[in-house]
Structure formats: C-alpha cells, structure tokens
Amino acid sequence: MINIRAILVATSLATAALAPLAAPTCANAASAQDLNRDADEALQQLYSKNPSAELLGKHARAILVFPKIVKAGLVFGGAYGEGVLKQDSKVDGYYNSVTASWGLQAGAQSYGYAVFLMSQKAVDYIHRSKGWEIGSGPTVVVVNQGIAKNLSTSTLKDDAYAFIFDQQGLMAGVNIEGSKISRIKP
Fold first, then answer.
1. Which of 3, 44, 162, 172 is deepest in the core (most CB within 10 A)?
2. Domain locations in the chain as residue ranges
C-alpha cells in the first residue's frame, strides 16, 4: 500500500530544497568573468571530445553555452545553470536555464549543454524574446552520437543544435526540452 503521508513529506522536502533552483535571482548570478572562463573551457572540452560540435561551432551564427547545470529531484525536480551567448567569438549576453519537472524521479546530477544557433532567425528570436522556452520558437535538435556521425555542412538544416556534455551524478536521463532560457545580468 502506498504511504501518502511519506510521499507528501518527501515531496515537501524536495520542493523546499529545490526552491532556490526554480526561482533564482540576479543576485545569485556568477560574475561575468567566471561565466566567460567557464563557458570557454566547457566549449573547448566539448570540441576536443566531439568533432561534430566543432564543425557546428565554425558555422554557427551564435553559441549559447551553459557550462554547468545542476539538476535534482524527488517527485518534483528542477535544474538551474547560467551561461554565455557568444557571437563572432565575443560575449553577446548572459543567460540562465531553468527547468521544472514532476514525475517518477529521484537523484541529482550536473551536466553542461551548448546550443549552436545556425540561423539568423534563431539568433533574432533569442534577442527579442523575454524568455525562450526550448520546445517553442526555433527548432532545436538534441545531438546524440548517432546524429553526430551524420552531421556535415550539407546536412545542417535546423535552426539550432544542442549538445549535452559532462554528465555526472545519479539521475536517469537528461532532457533540455521545456527549459526556459532568460537573459540575466551577472
């Protein structure tokens, strides 16, 4: 028999623990210098491990890099991280990525992701939107090993491609679908 009280207590504890992740403030933002350094290092590590990401980087109009996303959940879950939008090798802004979820989940993990914006339409969208929800707006293809093997300059047809990297921790699956990306001031 399911113990409803135990589920409610666990859910309450998880919600309380994850509240700072779900509702970050600009006061929590890392310094611009830290974000720039971490984003550059993360992108270089991604390129060294994945030649397809480097290929996309050479052709992208802009790259949104989130070096570290922290995700935790126990029935209710959340993920939060801060990143940098780079355009023409220059910083074009700072963003956060916030995700909330509900369902059968337990654990914690960290990971990074980079979104390669391939069209001017995608770059314009992120500049003019007050918060971009992945899954709405430009089409984002999450690149796995199978897709990566077939990427070339002639097969690039979508607005944006995302690579998830540096996964650590104990939680089943990573999905950036439903993440909200908003501009911040570091």
1. 162
2. 4-184
| Residue % of the chain over a pLDDT of 70 | 66
Residues in the chain, pLDDT under 50: 1-27, 145-156
Identify whether the C-beta of residue 116 lies closer than 8 Å to the C-beta of residue 63: yes
Q: Cα dist. 162→10, 49, 52, 103, 177 in Å?
A: 33, 15, 11, 24, 11
Tokens for 155? Answer: 């097969």
| Residues contacting residue 114 through CB under 8 Å, at least 6 positions apart | 42, 43, 46, 53, 63, 64, 65, 66, 162, 163, 165
By the 10 Å C-beta count (0-12 exposed, 13-18 middle, 19+ buried), 118 is classed as buried
Helical H runs in the chain? 4-22, 32-49, 51-59, 120-128, 145-149
